[in-house]
């Protein structure tokens, strides 16, 4: 009889351990930890005397064909992308990967990295479609694909996190970068209908910032409560040079200039699909 009691006790302990592990795993997968801005110095070089330009026409062709605007959301018709256009998208990404971005001017580099990031993200979704959220990619123990090696440039493997947090954020120190890179989610700032170029980057960044802040997914006021995108919580340090998050937001939403009420955060990871 004692053996059965001991066996039952052991099973109960194992079940408790298993349950604890599942809870821990679920919590880790459900919590997004924002990476810090940490420079990868190899990519810091540029050539300001360069006259080389990068064509992003293939990316523009894709956006023209498959990006649609519905209300405050810019959505992608993933289910409609044909094999020819999937191949063209991969060709565009491979073309960028064949270049050495360090030979470009800073202006060309910024468009290069942002367009590459967004094209790779869309390509990842297409390779795994249908899927409800980008957070489902990356493996069982991962929250999304951001730490996967997704491209090799100059014989160096890069992840999406490398591009955003080790190149774009630390080199440019521009909080508007958060409105430029797109994570294929409804809560994310919209993927712009125009590919970035050295000439249109400044205008598009301001347009993207204004669109997001004036949308309910960016900033929503209700009485004395402001519900902000979680981007402003995850990356609040990036807005310090502008006087903080609320000072930055007030540039595009002046009524928040003197706001001192309650602040809440929210983010929608559902796929940005039509």
Mean pLDDT, all residues: 91
- Helix share bin: 40-55%
How many separate domains? 2
* Poorly predicted residue ranges: 2-7, 14-31
Give, in spatial order, the strands making up the sheet with the most strands: 5-6-7
| Strand content range | 5-15%
Radius of gyration: 22 Å
How far is the N terminus from the C terminus? Answer: 62 Å
Largest β-sheet summary: 3 strands, mixed
Large-scale geometry: globular
Look at the helices and sheets and give the structural class. alpha+beta
Number of helices: 9
What is the number of beta strands?
7
What is the string of helix and strand elements?
HHEEHHEEHHHEEHHE
Write the layout of secondary structure elements.
Elements: H1 2-30, H2 57-66, E1 67-70, E2 73-76, H3 83-97, H4 106-128, E3 149-153, E4 156-159, H5 160-172, H6 177-180, H7 201-213, E5 219-222, E6 225-229, H8 231-234, H9 245-250, E7 262-266
Parallel strand pairs: 6-7
Antiparallel strand pairs: 1-2, 3-4, 5-6
Helix pairs in contact: 3-4, 4-5
